[in-house]
Amino acid sequence: MTTVSENVFLIGYRGTGKSTVAQLLAARLGWEAVDADAVLEARVGRSIRHIFLEDGEAKFRRLEAAVLKRLCRRQHQVVATGGGVVLRPGNRRRLREAGGVVWLFANAKTIWRRLQTDPSTAERRPDLTVGGLAEIKEMLQVREPLYRACANLAVNTAGREPVEIVHEILAHWNLG
Ligand code: S3P
Fold first, then answer.
1. Of 7, 55, 99, 117, which is least packed with CB atoms within 10 Å of its CB?
2. Contact yes or no for 44/59 (Cβ under 8 A)
3. Three-state secondary structure string covering the chain
4. 79-126 pLDDT, tens digit each
5. pTM of the predicted model, to two decimals?
6. Residue 172: what pLDDT?
């Protein structure tokens, strides 16, 4: 069975700090920080926003599953996954098999505030949040049970510094 000593996967909705925490945690462990969305963009040669616009979400989800499959063959990485990776049961199973899975969460208002101030949101991501706070709440209602079912550890990120979150993850697995 695979253990956390092989990989850590960060799952959770947009704006929950996955990319920042991945960088910090990887530096602490001496592992590689990987942004699964960035790997996908490099492989396809287009931004996720363009893939959604030109090919649709179904095609993006197929590419996302293929990228995850490849990443799961490697070791000693902290992977920041895309917020929708848990939608496919096969992805959830694969994540659990390939390492420790940490769900970073925050309340809808915090997420909404963070997305307003994240410069990469408009240019890189599809407009999944045009519906504002109400849409984020709806998405969380659908996805939270999936994040919860997939994760070994759930960490609240609202009102906390990334470094505190990293400490909590390290302590959970006695990796500190
Ligand atoms: C998505 C989240 C994005 C990206 C894509 C779809 C989602 O990743 O994978 O735009 O469905 O929530 P981030 O969580 O890194 O923004």
1. 117
2. no
3. CCCCCCEEEEECCCCCCHHHHHHHHHHHHCCEEEEHHHHHHHHHCCCHHHHHHHHCHHHHHHHHHHHHHHHCCCCCEEEECCCCHHHCHHHHHHHHHHCEEEEEECCHHHHHHHHHCCCHHHHHCCCCCCCHHHHHHHHHHHHHHHHHHHCCEEEECCCCCHHHHHHHHHHHCCCC
4. 999 999 999 999 999 999 999 999 999 999 999 988 888 766 666 666
5. 0.94
6. 95
85 CA distance to ligand 1 middle (Å): 8
41 lines ligand 1 (CB under 6 A): no
Q: Residue 168's closest CA among 10, 19, 56, 57?
A: 10
Report the 10 Å Cβ neighbour count for 175: 15
Per-residue model confidence (pLDDT) at position 64: 98
Enter the tokens of residue 118. 């994240």
- Residue 125 in contact with ligand 1 by CB distance below 6 A: yes
Return d(Cα 118, Cα 115) in angstroms, integer.
Answer: 5
For 6-58, the pLDDT digits (tens) are 999 999 999 999 999 999 999 999 999 999 999 999 999 999 999 999 999 99
| Tokens read off for 87 | 């939608």
